[in-house]
Amino acid sequence: MDHYHLSDISPVETLGLLNHYYFPPYITLAHMFHAPKGWEIRNREMSQFVLQYVVDGFAYYPIEGCQYETKRGDLLFHRPHERHSILTVDSDPYVCISIVFHFGTQSFPFDDLFRDNHLLGNYADQPVETLLSQIVTHYRQPGLNHQIRCQSLLLQIFAEAAQWVETHANQTKSDALHMPKLVLMKNYLHDHFNRDIQIKDLEQVSGLSKNYILFLFRKHLGTSPIQYLAWIRINKAKELAIHSNLSISQIAETVGYSDVHTFGRMFKKKTGQSLSQFCSNLIC
Known about the structure:
globular; 2 domains; Arc Repressor Mutant, subunit A; alpha+beta; Jelly Rolls; 19% strand; nine-stranded mixed β-sheet
């Protein structure tokens, strides 16, 4: 059965066709897509739930009259029969991960988790992107073990997104006071990702203590500064793999690794796949 066909039909119709599923959530499509120039979707309705993650680039993404300008790292969610469009622009690429799923005849309290949100956060340089990539990888493999892993990963993403929605809704004024320093440090890491950056460098940039820097990163980004730097390097490597003809060793050197084997181990440890496997999952 064509997976694209499964994602287009009603949840009840898919149940007899999903032989490897024994319990929800039922995933009917999981792929990474590199949109060709001029590609777009207008006023589409899906009969299932959709998660759409921007791996790279930009697109306008209106959902039921709400206008979203999505960029790298944005995670979008829409419910069955919510009318939406995906409008790319010629000056920007658009690479996305799409997960289409449903819960069969059972209800699931998405409104309690996500409220009325379509935007579930920005996860650039964060582990959620790895969870999404792993779903794509496991979805392509046959067998119950891979199916269960897909379902488990999807539930992890729900939990992370629900946490983002709750945190975003309850941000205090004191949090806002911390953000300029955090943005300053994030920008420094993005601008110097190919250098050997240490915590002491961030202390000099921000004027904050090591312990407070670690606190800010853990609270607002869910990771340490050094791990955040690793995610920047990973995503830069993915970007170069998609948009350049550089070899893996050249990519490793460009993102700050003099030894390609060290880079390869880091990339696979963080993403669950090698850079070459990441490229093989890309659908054009």
